[in-house]
TrEMBL record:
Keyword Hydrolase carried by entry: yes
Record note on quaternary structure: Homodimer.
Family: Belongs to the glycosyl hydrolase 67 family.
Span of domain Alpha glucuronidase N-terminal: 19-137
Location of the active site: 298, 372, 400
Recorded catalytic activity of this chain's protein: Hydrolysis of (1->2)-alpha-D-(4-O-methyl)glucuronosyl links in the main chain of hardwood xylans
Protein name, per record: Xylan alpha-1,2-glucuronidase
EC class name: hydrolase
Length: 709
């Protein structure tokens, strides 16, 4: 009886904790090709990073192939796996020349003769390069890729590949939808939750090499000795995986925890305080990465409080960190209470005059678009406008404006769209990716930041598919020119199955999911239409309150004539912040891509669209198209029942149901609301919203997760 019951349990139930590093046994037909590779492993364990690489290979190959490789100092049989650097594995010395140009973090994977026998080699110039190469090799095996003739040569195109945690010290995560913060500050530094190691493994597997532990809206407490000791404990776990820790620094910390009367960046006592603080940090954490700063933005303190500018503030911190090799990531997400101009223009206005003035160890961190991580934004006009300053990309991985963790939205296509956008800063082909990787303006200091979607939920990200967004962020930070679709395919193979009958439908669901959320929330360039404060659900009617640019009506400007924000020369002229060819394209209603039409123009309801429909009809049909896509994803996913383990299949299915309901709600509420301006009937075949606008306005969600505190 007991036996029968035991066998009745779903054998392959998975809760998602293992992420894309599941290492479940490969089907025998696939495993066969790795028999020799999986038999013997030559990999040193003299350093913590070497140990991490070998542990991962033993765990990974052991799981995938059903037995752990025997460990050896020399290759005794054909096909062995050899991992290391010429310094750590003398047999790899002959590859020294081939390793040139791969830098500190690059690696190669290829077949070579070692100790007179055929071997698969993962070779690098450093231990961390060998660790990255080991993860790459495991990815190939997880995906069932043949290794015969393998020839991989990889090095990151971006230097700093960083997660930004918006985690408060009380474990609340701002805009977090995966439970509370994984940093258990109270029990640190003594209790090192094993999750920290798994976090580091996951990050290293995609090349992430830095983490900012605390929210940009930070308390100065994070810089006190109590918290520095806790930060040091986390750093001690992450170090072996090539990950540095960074902290968000509150600009007014010299007042709050330093007892000074001012935080003026030109005040000698303030400057000395930061130098002393930096010295103290590096005594505790010798490889500390540096500071991330949100200053003079949304009420945060900053240099402008003292009549100084962003460069004054950033350079003061840079001076304190420079002797230790630390860097400053100074955010360009600024908009002041006093500034009456179009919010989309403010960062450019405040930062461009300081181009070339920032210290060498400062990066200016710029969100992908000029407003705030909206479902779709044109690329930020700062990209291309500050050639003498390294600009760091800031993407949001957590889906503050894209349906939280319940909506299946793969962000790869969105990241790709922004990175491939052509700024024309130095003529055609001046893509955002080339600004981020430093190649356009020959910057050596380069970076990409992703606002993390990680919390204590068993599946880390609040949903199984949101893991893909962490994954694609890391892969694109490594290579901003990479393909979102190929990355989705890698992820799906590792996360669900190598069976093409699973992979292809999953990839196809993912690839259209970003366009779908744009369609059912903010089609045709609309933006900032969500519920107030928590940002959950539709709120196109939001108006009033402390400031106009925290309302929806400020952005959509719907009236009897039409809809959209005129940012052309007849309006706020934000288009003029782009290079002339882009300004020209975006500035004309005839040439602007329809995806950005209402971002840049106030357009009459009867304007003829490419489809031949009026703007009103097109708008309504886009909303419907978005909802239909979600229905399609539900259908596709239901066909995968039995091909994906039951536990994860069930949760995804339920979440898709939530997504469909919420997509319909967005569509109905938006159509009902905008119809009060357009005063036009719905196009034929489009269902009337089941309620009037007053109903949708009356819905309240006081405890929706993630709101700022
Ligand atoms: C961390 C938006 C979010 C805030 C966030 C801010 C920022 O305004 O709603 O929660 O604050 O961006 O990026 O600083």
């Amino acid at each position: 009886m007991l036996l029968a019951w035991t066998f009745a349990l779903p054998a392959l139930a998975e809760d998602g904790y293992d992420l894309w590093l599941r290492y479940k046994p490969l089907p025998e037909a696939q495993a066969r090709q790795y028999r020799e590779l999986g038999a013997e492993l030559v990999a040193p364990v003299q350093t913590p990073t070497q140990q991490a690489a070998r542990d991962e290979l033993v765990r990974g190959l052991g799981g995938l192939l059903g037995r752990e490789p025997a460990q050896a100092a020399a290759v005794r049989r054909n096909g062995a796996l050899v991992v290391g650097t010429p310094a750590s594995v003398p047999q790899l010395a002959s590859l020294q020349g081939d390793l040139e140009g791969l830098g500190e973090e690059g690696y190669l994977i290829r077949e070579a003769r070692i100790d007179g026998r055929k071997a698969t080699v993962v070779a690098a110039n450093s231990d961390v390069g060998a660790l990255y190469g080991s993860f790459h090799l495991l990815r190939l095996v997880q995906s069932g890729e043949p290794l015969a003739g393998v020839d991989v040569r990889e090095s990151p195109r971006v230097k700093l590949r960083v997660l930004n945690h918006w985690d408060n010290l009380d474990r609340y995560v701002e805009r977090g939808y995966a439970g509370e913060s994984i940093w258990d500050w109270h029990r640190l530094p003594d209790w090192l939750d094993p999750r920290y190691t798994d976090y580091a493994r996951a990050n290293a597997s995609i090349g992430i090499n830095g983490t900012v532990l605390n929210n940009v809206n930070t308390s100065a407490q994070a810089l006190t000795p109590l918290y520095l000791e806790k930060t040091a404990a986390l750093a001690s776990v992450f170090r072996a995986y090539g990950i540095k820790v960074y902290l968000s620094a509150r600009f007014s910390a010299p007042i709050e925890i330093g007892g000074l009367a001012t935080a003026d960046p030109l005040d000698p006592a303030v400057r000395q305080w930061w130098k002393d603080k930096a010295d103290e940090i590096y005594r505790t954490i010798p490889d500390f990465g540096g500071f991330l700063v949100k200053a003079n933005s949304e009420g945060q303190p900053g240099p402008q409080d003292y009549g100084r500018n962003h460069a004054d503030g950033a350079n003061m911190l840079a001076e304190a960190l420079a002797p230790h090799g630390g860097i400053v990531m100074w955010r360009a997400f600024v908009y002041s209470h006093e500034e009456p101009d179009d919010r989309a223009k403010q960062a450019y206005t405040e930062f461009v005059p300081h181009d070339g003035v920032f210290a060498d160890n400062v990066l200016v961190q710029v969100k992908n678009g000029a407003i705030d991580f909206q479902p779709r934004e044109p690329f930020h006009p700062l990209f291309g406008a500050m050639p003498r300053t390294p600009l760091m990309m800031e993407f949001q991985i957590t889906k503050e404006y894209l349906g939280f963790a319940t909506h299946l939205v793969y962000l790869g296509p969105m990241y790709e769209e922004v990175l491939r956008a052509d700024t024309h800063a130095r003529g055609p082909g001046s893509t955002v990716a080339k600004i981020i990787d430093g190649s356009l303006e020959s910057h050596a200091l380069t970076g990409m930041a992703g606002v993390a979607n990680i919390g204590v939920d068993r599946n880390w990200s609040g949903s199984h598919f949101d893991q893909a967004n962490w994954y694609v962020y890391g892969r694109m930070a490594w290579d901003p020119h990479a393909s979102a679709e190929e990355i989705a395919r890698d992820w799906a193979r590792m996360t669900f199955s190598t069976d093409p009958a699973v992979v292809e439908p999953v990839v196809s669901m993912m690839m259209g999911s970003h366009q779908a959320v744009v369609d059912y929330m903010t089609p045709l360039g609309l933006h900032h239409l969500m519920g107030r404060g928590h940002h959950y659900g539709p709120g196109p009617w939001v108006e009033g309150g402390p400031r106009a640019d925290w309302t929806s009506v400020y952005y959509h400007r719907a009236d009897a004539r039409g809809i959209g924000f005129d940012r052309s020369a007849t309006g706020s002229n934000a288009v003029a912040q782009y290079a002339p060819p882009v300004a020209e394209q975006f500035g004309s209603i005839d040439t602007v891509p329809e995806d950005f039409l209402l971002w840049f123009h106030h357009v009459p309801w009867d304007h003829r669209m490419a489809s031949g429909r009026s703007l009103w009809d097109e708008l309504v049909s886009r909303y419907g198209r978005g909802v239909d896509y979600v229905r399609g994803m539900r259908r596709t996913w239901s066909t995968l029942e039995g091909k994906v383990d039951q536990e994860r299949h069930h949760q995804v299915a339920v979440f898709l149901g939530i997504q469909e309901k919420e997509a319909q709600w967005w569509r109905d509420a938006s159509v009902a609301y905008f119809q009060t301006f357009s005063r036009r009937p719905l196009p034929a075949g489009e269902a009337e919203p089941p309620h009037d606008v007053e109903y949708y306005k009356s819905l309240q969600f006081p405890f929706a997760p993630g709101d700022g505190k």
